[in-house]
């Protein structure tokens, strides 16, 4: 069986965003969703990540809780999903569907847009245990 392509990943991620409750869905609509096979080298270097397989997703922007109309961001907020690292994690886990994993990574990254830290997310989401 062939691995899902970038378009299939985008379909899964958009379905996850569409399933968010209002008003989160409305706020998420303003975020650019990018699906790439691998994280760009610039991102890996900036985050000091040696192995690109370690980064499944990323929120890049200013969280809603920190936004200011007097100091707008020059770039749109972006959620990145990285296909190959997600596929690798899915193959290794074997206890979740690919759709569930893509949904989880998508919601996790959008939670950062809404102002949640990794610790905040972990306090209610035991996914990784």
From TrEMBL:
SUPFAM superfamilies associated with the record: Metalloproteases ('zincins'), catalytic domain (SSF55486)
Domain of life of the native organism: Bacteria
Pfam families on file: Zincin_1 (PF06262)
CDD domains to which the protein is assigned, alphabetical: MMP_ACEL2062 (cd12952)
Protein name as annotated: Metallopeptidase family protein
Organism (species): Salipiger mangrovisoli
């Amino acid at each position: 069986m062939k691995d899902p392509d970038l378009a299939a990943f985008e379909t899964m991620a958009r379905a996850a965003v569409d399933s968010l409750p209002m008003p989160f869905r409305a706020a998420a609509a303003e975020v650019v969703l990018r699906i790439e096979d691998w994280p760009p080298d610039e991102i890996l270097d900036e985050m000091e990540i040696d192995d690109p397989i370690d980064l499944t997703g990323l929120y890049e922007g200013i969280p809603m809780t920190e936004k200011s109309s007097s100091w707008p961001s020059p770039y749109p907020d972006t959620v990145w999903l990285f296909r190959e690292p997600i596929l690798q994690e899915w193959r290794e886990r074997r206890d979740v569907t690919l759709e569930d994993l893509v949904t989880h990574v998508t919601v996790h990254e959008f939670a950062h847009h809404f102002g949640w830290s990794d610790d905040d997310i972990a306090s209610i989401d035991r996914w990784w245990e």
